[in-house]
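Subject: Sanity check before I submit

Could someone independently write out the structure tokens for this chain? I want to compare against mine line by line before I put it in a report. The sequence has 341 residues.
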Amino acid sequence: MIVRSKAPLRIGLAGGGSDVSPYSDIYGGAILNATINMYAYATIIPRFDGKIILRAFDKGQTLEYESSTELPIDGNLDLAKGVYNRLVRDFIGKPLSFELTTWVDAPPGSGLGTSSTLVATIIGAFSEWKKLPLGPYDLAHLAFEIERIDLGMAGGKQDQYAATFGGVNFMEFYKDDKVIVNPLRIKPKILDELAYNLLLFYTDTSRVSAEIIARQQENVRKNNAEAIEAMHQIKAQAVQMKEAILREELDKIGEILDFGYRQKQKMATGITTPQIEAIYEAAIKAGASGGKISGAGGGGYLVFYCPGNTRFSVIETLKQFGGHLHRYEYVNTGLTTWTIK
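---
Independent answer below. Compare away.
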């Protein structure tokens, strides 16, 4: 028997950072994101020799353990271990023997929600194998708890829900970890136009998002007025972006992105770098009307809105910075699991 699962990565379109506690607990958050045809994958093959084997082919890592109810959290493939430990504790109640293989289409620290998507994908594979009673909200919330609470990794709440639900979603975040996912009905031609105009550029750098997020969280705890006001504006940006897309006022998207880019820089230090600033300004001069850093900032992917036919001049300009342009399409399907016997 082979059990498989996959879940899509996401592009954050607006509101990024307002889903991070304690801001979302105090003021509420709002996010607009869309899943794309880049995925995290997990495969489970049951074993009968009392061994647990974890393989992360994208990282070139393989770990082997004797079957146990708890695997050591030691910095090596902790996402997979964290999922296993929690599921054994809360649902399964006994040690398992299996081989788990994972792969993610984007590198960690790239800003597309790779870690959270992988956690949701691994949960999905175990849920398929053991027929766990997890609906989409349950699974996404469990993924959030494993990553943020059990493993103590700083971050927000949007990625787990994007991976699980899929599609273009306006998400609302409240205290007590309450989340509401509002799927948006968008015409195929509008999604095609967005995919054509929104360039996804990888800077060939990654970053430790937890460090940036920790500074953002500290600014809220210390009641930093400028940072908190910037987060208020970022949350408002999500509503503006939702309305622009639903009303098919696509000419406003670049301006809304640029507004968010300027505000995000005030949320915490390290969100932008001299390299990111140089890339951003060059893209604007080449015809982009706005852009954003995907994820927490500091590196990874950048997104640029290129109206009309300006995408070609922007692409040509970005070549001088190295990195590479990533072609993608939007997808409406979230976490998917299946079994081959």
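---
OP: Matches mine. For the report I'm noting this point. The domain at 188-325 is CATH 3.30.70.890 (Alpha-Beta Plaits).
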